[in-house]
Amino acid sequence: MVPACGVNLIVGDNGSGKSSLLEAVYLLGTGRSFRSRGAEPLIQRGEGALTVHARVQEAGGLEFSLGVEKSIRRTRIRLAEAEVRNAATLARRLPVVLIPPDSQRLLSDGGDLRRRLVDWGLFHVEPSYAEVYQGYRRALQQRNAQLRESSSIRALVPWDRELGAYGECLHQLRMNHLQDMLPSVASLTSQLMSLEVNIYYQHGWASAGELQQALQKNAPRDLVRGYTTVGPHRADLVFTVSGDSAQHRLSRGEAKLFCLAVWLAQARDFHARAGRKPLILIDDLAAELDGDSRQRVFRAVADLGAQTFVTAVSKRVSKGIFKAEKSFHVKRGRVVEMV
Fold first, then answer.
1. Which residue from 140, 215, 259, 332 puts its CA 20 to 30 A from 270's CA?
2. End-to-end CA distance of the chain, in Å?
């Protein structure tokens, strides 16, 4: 399969393998699946592993090979013929924005998905993010271990200090990133929905005071529960439309448009700040959207100018102003280019 540099339309019946094709691309950019935590459901019955290979051409013309092999026990990654151990290396070389069929979960699920949305952008555009985030996670694990092993509040003091320092820094990075991203979100939601949208960041502890103070204040409760109840790992985003909760204000179709706008804004912000365009995967775009809404999304996708893979049951989704540069048909896992 040789996809176009622009928009690629992947069509086929339900269960034909369209999403599996997107998953193969996603594996190349992340080293993991977006549908399964383990590798076993991805591996063909009777086989011991799965393998995905690709040739990648960067904007400057540099080409390199990329390969991921996954078995139940291990993941092997090869980049430019050399084996690498860290999947983060994949993400930096092949940044991928995934928009799943149930993208409305961004509004309805817990805060973890919304935190990951922010952290994806920070990982790619903020050099200090990885060190700060890893430092925070390490201190959080140590503090939680101390909470389970000891009943002494004094024993928590060193971890409160370290967790507080990393947490304050992570909080500020997220705040700055959201502030930079808001204009793109506002522009795209206006283009897709003509609605006034705002995003508020709840940073995971009481607004008054620093994180270290909040950790010390909540220490008795944390000792009872055995884990840390405040901090950036409890942060969340609140989306509002014309002042009301987006989750309760929007219909299912409107919610999908809204979430598409947020993810596409992330891609646009990445391009503006990193000088590169991410690869965009949109699974089952037509679901929940009428023809007019699809056309507005197609305009927004085309305006980004990024290599994009869009799956749909019918090629009719491309009628109108949107024209895919290449179209492919998937049947029983076999991909054939449509002329």
1. 140
2. 14
